[in-house]
User: Which sequence fits this backbone?
């Protein structure tokens, strides 16, 4: 057989990159020269170390070399070393072995385990970090969980909370607290769930048991801010009214809670009460631009557009570059002009109607 025929001999699947030709070029030897004992091993080692080919490719190249030596050169190789594939042993897991590593590897479980028991944390922000597929996986994993410790009940209760199962979450958190009465994170999370279900007395008790001063303005201010960020304005109003019941309070906190009362009433669409609250703030702090802005928006909803324009004027006086203030003023002004035009038109129609009635009476008298 010719040299060309020997050099073109390849693996059975037609690939020549790991076939006989690279083997000949690697050793720079004519095809009829007897092979040295370690030549195939050195070539295969070069494939693995330099070219980083897989074990299957090494075996493919070795098969091509053996085939060429036996059937083309009639020089069978006495000793060859075949590459070994890595072992992949099957793993059998129990229910706990499946559920716990998977759940603890999710972002949700990690968050609940490492989250400090701070009342200022945004509990509602966590579901945004999970896509629908992750939430579906959590639902599938929940039946596999078999909590036994307080932390495990707390973890499952937190997952129930994210999935919207509040009552189940409260049940698991109650079990965690029964096992560990001083479990601060479970107490705080259950208190927040009681807030959502409007069980404020039980929420106060849990916050108190968790070690928080439920009468401190700093604590109440944190609760108000978190409730507003979660669009839970009824809870925010509860905390604001509780704070305003205090007999003694610093002026800065008193002004803050008075203004927040106006914001809560406005967001709950109780506009008359909102205007009253804002007026109470502005009587003591006439330069609070956010109070002027809130009252202007409440007056707009009450269709008291001229008063709203006056409020927007105060906003622009105090903060000329406040975002959207000028546009809102123009909108209120246009509505006020339209309201006046509508009143004028209504008056003209009324006068015309009265004139027609008078003409009819005059005709009747003439007849």
Assistant:
């Amino acid at each position: 057989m010719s040299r060309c025929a020997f050099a073109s001999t390849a693996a059975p699947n037609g690939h020549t990159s790991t076939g006989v030709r690279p083997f000949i070029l690697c050793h720079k030897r004519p095809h009829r020269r007897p092979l040295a004992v370690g030549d195939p091993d050195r070539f295969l080692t070069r494939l693995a170390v330099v070219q980083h080919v897989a074990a299957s490719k090494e075996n493919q190249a070795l098969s091509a070399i053996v085939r060429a030596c036996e059937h083309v050169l009639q020089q069978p190789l006495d000793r060859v070393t075949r590459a070994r594939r890595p072992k992949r042993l099957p793993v059998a897991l129990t229910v706990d072995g499946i559920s716990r590593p998977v759940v603890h590897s999710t972002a949700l479980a990690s968050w609940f385990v490492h989250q400090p028991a701070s009342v200022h944390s945004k509990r509602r922000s966590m579901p945004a970090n999970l896509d629908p597929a992750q939430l579906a996986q959590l639902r599938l994993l929940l039946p596999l969980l078999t909590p036994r410790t307080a932390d495990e009940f707390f973890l499952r209760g937190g997952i129930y909370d994210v999935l919207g199962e509040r009552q189940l979450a409260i049940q698991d958190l109650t079990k965690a607290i029964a096992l560990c009465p001083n479990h601060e994170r479970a107490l705080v999370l259950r208190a927040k769930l009681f807030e959502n279900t409007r069980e404020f007395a039980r929420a106060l008790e849990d916050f108190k048991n968790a070690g928080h001063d439920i009468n401190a303005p700093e604590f109440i201010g944190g609760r108000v801010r978190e409730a507003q960020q979660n669009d839970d304005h009824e809870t925010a109003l509860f905390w604001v009214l509780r704070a305003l019941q205090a007999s003694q309070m610093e002026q800065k906190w008193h002004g803050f809670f008075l203004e927040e009362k106006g914001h809560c009433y406005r967001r709950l669409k109780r506009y008359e009460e909102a205007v009253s609250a804002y007026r109470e703030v502005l009587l003591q702090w006439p330069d609070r631009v956010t109070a002027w802005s809130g009252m202007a928006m409440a007056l707009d909803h009450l269709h008291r557009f001229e008063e709203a324009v006056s409020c927007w004027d105060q906003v622009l006086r105090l903060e000329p570059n406040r975002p959207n203030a000028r546009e809102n003023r123009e909108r209120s002004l246009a509505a006020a002009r339209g309201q006046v035009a509508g009143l004028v038109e209504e008056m003209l129609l009324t006068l015309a109607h009265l004139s027609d009635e008078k003409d009819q009476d005059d005709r009747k008298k003439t007849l």
About this structure: The radius of gyration is 40 Å. Confidence is low (pLDDT under 50) at residues 1-17, 91-108, 110-114, 116-128. Residues 108 and 114 are 10 Å apart (CA to CA). The chain has three domains: 3-71, 98-214, 258-367.
